[in-house]
Design goal:
about 375 residues; 8 helices; alpha+beta; Gyrase A, domain 2; 6-stranded antiparallel beta barrel; Elongation Factor Tu (Ef-tu), domain 3; 19 strands
């Protein structure tokens, strides 16, 4: 794995006994000695600490920077208040998704967090389409996520001001001597915080948080099962350049100002398709599926409307066993006519069609502090 990148916390991961695997061009911890199941349940019950430093951190500066970014995303960036964060996505001219990202208004600039595997693509996209805007990739800061019902207590032990933050608030906080950019957000469905910290201070802050007995290190394996229980999309699996935000069930992230009749209707790539689907509905929809039995239906399993005969009508995009819900769970795409809760479909696993039931998302209720 010598050609892979390493985060500034690499040595700490080894010290903690992590199993390292290649992920998005980096050597990343997939699990620690307790294992994926225990790490998942610990995050739901207490607090889990994740190294997400492989993700891209980008600052945008320039005149009318919010209006400029709105030419690339179907999101209300102009209406995003200072010290607030919003989920969004870059769209293609065909209405697909180039990447999903977090957008923060930090007063005199915007701060973006993008997916690790799409960093280069996103930076090129920004450079090529935002003339007059200074685009700066931040490479001197790590990113860690503290997630779970005891995350607030753990971070407040280092700075009590964190308690005043609500979901999607952003603030500069001193944590263990480091000036950190903190958002109250995450990718697990739990309350929590994402913390951008200078590389030089990241190991110290991580160790300080891990000194709390409620905080445990969590790997990519549990991160995936946590986000899947929460019904959250993974780029490259559940969303990509072939899926529209409406098909993917992400319409909640397209604010009124950017929709038909809104103050800044359209004006983003793929607006024709996306606004049409908002009005008339998409041909297919992302759905939750609960397979019968105990075996998960994983990505790329084809879905059929009947137990025998017929062509595949859809496909699983993510699947795993849900430690909290204690059953297998999947997400995938089905024609709109088959996407209603309670619909029975069949996934073909090793040549045999097995039943699954369409179910509302999320599988596990989200617990954000609003």
């Amino acid at each position: 794995m010598s050609d892979l990148g390493r985060t500034v916390l690499y040595d700490l991961h080894l010290e903690l006994g992590a199993k390292m695997v290649p992920f998005a061009g980096y050597e990343m911890p997939v699990q620690y000695p307790p294992g994926v199941m225990k790490e998942h349940l610990h995050t739901r019950a207490a607090a889990g600490l994740f190294d997400v430093s492989h993700m891209g951190q980008v600052i945008l500066r320039g005149p009318n920077v919010a209006q400029a970014l709105e030419t690339l995303v179907p999101v209300d960036v102009v209406g995003l208040g200072a010290g607030r964060q919003r989920y969004g996505f870059f769209t293609t001219e065909d209405g697909g998704i180039i990447d999903d990202l977090m957008i923060t208004n930090r007063g005199d600039h915007l701060f973006l967090v993008v997916n690790a595997a799409r960093k280069a693509v996103d930076l090129d996209h920004l450079q090529n389409n935002l003339p007059g805007i200074k685009i700066q990739e931040i490479t001197g800061r790590a990113l860690i996520a503290l997630q779970g019902p005891k995350a607030e207590d753990a971070i407040a032990a280092l700075n009590p001001a964190a308690r005043a933050m609500r979901f999607m608030d952003v603030a500069d906080l001193d944590l263990a001597g480091a000036t950190c950019w903190v958002s109250r957000s995450g990718y697990t469905g739990e309350d929590g915080f994402e913390i951008s910290v200078p590389n030089t201070m990241a190991p110290r802050l991580t160790r300080a948080l891990l000194e709390n007995p409620d905080v445990a290190p969590i790997g990519l394996g549990a991160r995936d099962s946590l986000r899947l229980e929460a019904g959250l999309c993974l780029y490259g699996s559940d969303i990509d350049e072939t899926t529209s935000p409406v098909e993917a069930g992400l319409t909640w992230a397209i604010q009124k100002a950017r929709r038909n009749g809104g103050a800044r209707e359209g004006g983003f790539p793929g607006a024709g398709r996306i606004l049409d689907e908002l009005t008339n509905g998409p041909a297919r929809e992302r759905v939750g599926l609960l397979p019968d039995g105990r075996a998960p239906m994983r990505a790329h399993v084809p879905l059929f409307a009947a137990e025998v005969g017929g062509e595949a009508v859809g496909e699983i995009t993510s699947g795993a066993f849900g430690p909290t819900i204690e059953k297998p769970m999947s997400m995938g795409y089905l024609p709109a006519a088959l996407a209603g809760p309670g619909t029975r479909v069949y996934g073909e696993v090793r040549g045999k069609r097995l039943p699954a039931t369409v179910t509302p998302l999320p599988f596990h209720k989200q617990s954000y502090k609003r």
